[in-house]
Amino acid sequence: MKSVLISGGAGFIGSHLCDRLLLRTDVQKLVVVDNLWTGLFANIAHVRDPRFHFVKSDVETLQSSEKFDEIYHLASPASPPWYMKEPQRTISANLLGAFRLLDLLKKGGRFCFTSTSEVYGDPLVSPQPESYKGQVDCTGPRSSYDESKRCTESLLFELQRTRGLDVRVVRPFNTYGPRTRPDDGRAVSNFITQALAGRPITVFGDGMQSRSWGYIDDIVDGFARYFWIEETDYRGPLNVGNDREISVLEVAQYVSRLVGGAPIVFEPSPPQDPTNRRPDLTNANYVMPDWSCKVSYEQGVAMTLDWFRKSMTAGAAE
Ligand code: UDP
């Protein structure tokens, strides 16, 4: 039986991963650490399971006398406006968080980390294989996120190399779906909340920049498979994402159509906004041959819109 700790477990992706962890019968205890900076208690409020324990704390100063068989490190903001506002705290959550959590790992335990496709920066090759070194500006406005993810990868892979640490690192591409904060600020949730509130949809730049939009269930399914596979000869970081690349403008137009024609306005691009992003899934297909993204962005955006509509109605009724 396994004792498991997840940092950032009240966050958007973390809370979905908690639900999957609780489906495992070999999990004896699940400790969720979250400071509720970008996470929301509402994301885990539905859990009724005696194995589940919530601790409100910054991950880097977490007090614990216990050690764990598996640790999942997800604590970090992931939305550009949030991490750009508090870069020092972002670096601390990722890097110092990893240092603290490594202290809490049992000998022979497994350390799982959600890195990011942002390690590729504004990529010059497409699609991006894990071997692509990326194009990141280490003094730019996105660097607190990109570089702290990269440095945490470095820490973990160097411990794998020098001490044989059991490491699993995923690099998720743009992920959206239920439990995103309404004020998260990323494209899909922003477009939906704007349209539902009767405000114009804000497209930054000309909207021709593209992303590969992955629905949360598909992405977390990929994480779970890679994190939980007992034996694999693949040791590197793994891209997890939907490899259908679609422009920001197309997503905005689709959301607009779904709500009956919300207006679209164009605003200046955020600094160093990547022009494109698409995962090369060769390694993912090798490591998890039964995994693929099953939800098209048309279905996923419609389901996310439904979820926001319901949660906004429920919120208004409270
Ligand atoms: N974006 C946009 N309008 C918004 C929010 C985001 O046009 O209200 C654009 C943003 O400039 C970027 C893309 O959508 O080109 C994806 O942004 P997001 O913040 O979702 O994720 P990123 O890939 O930048 O981390």
UniProtKB/TrEMBL annotation:
<keyword id="KW-0210">Decarboxylase</keyword>
<keyword id="KW-0325">Glycoprotein</keyword>
<dbReference type="InterPro" id="IPR001509">
    <property type="entry name" value="Epimerase_deHydtase"/>
</dbReference>
<dbReference type="GO" id="GO:0042732">
    <property type="term" value="P:D-xylose metabolic process"/>
</dbReference>
<dbReference type="Pfam" id="PF01370">
    <property type="entry name" value="Epimerase"/>
</dbReference>
<dbReference type="InterPro" id="IPR044516">
    <property type="entry name" value="UXS-like"/>
</dbReference>
<keyword id="KW-0472">Membrane</keyword>
<keyword id="KW-0812">Transmembrane</keyword>
<keyword id="KW-0456">Lyase</keyword>
<keyword id="KW-1133">Transmembrane helix</keyword>
<protein>
    <submittedName>
        <fullName>Nucleoside-diphosphate-sugar epimerase</fullName>
    </submittedName>
</protein>
<feature type="domain" description="NAD-dependent epimerase/dehydratase">
    <location>
        <begin position="4"/>
        <end position="225"/>
    </location>
</feature>
<dbReference type="InterPro" id="IPR036291">
    <property type="entry name" value="NAD(P)-bd_dom_sf"/>
</dbReference>
<keyword id="KW-0520">NAD</keyword>
<keyword id="KW-0735">Signal-anchor</keyword>
<dbReference type="GO" id="GO:0005737">
    <property type="term" value="C:cytoplasm"/>
</dbReference>
<keyword id="KW-0333">Golgi apparatus</keyword>
<dbReference type="GO" id="GO:0048040">
    <property type="term" value="F:UDP-glucuronate decarboxylase activity"/>
</dbReference>
<dbReference type="GO" id="GO:0070403">
    <property type="term" value="F:NAD+ binding"/>
</dbReference>
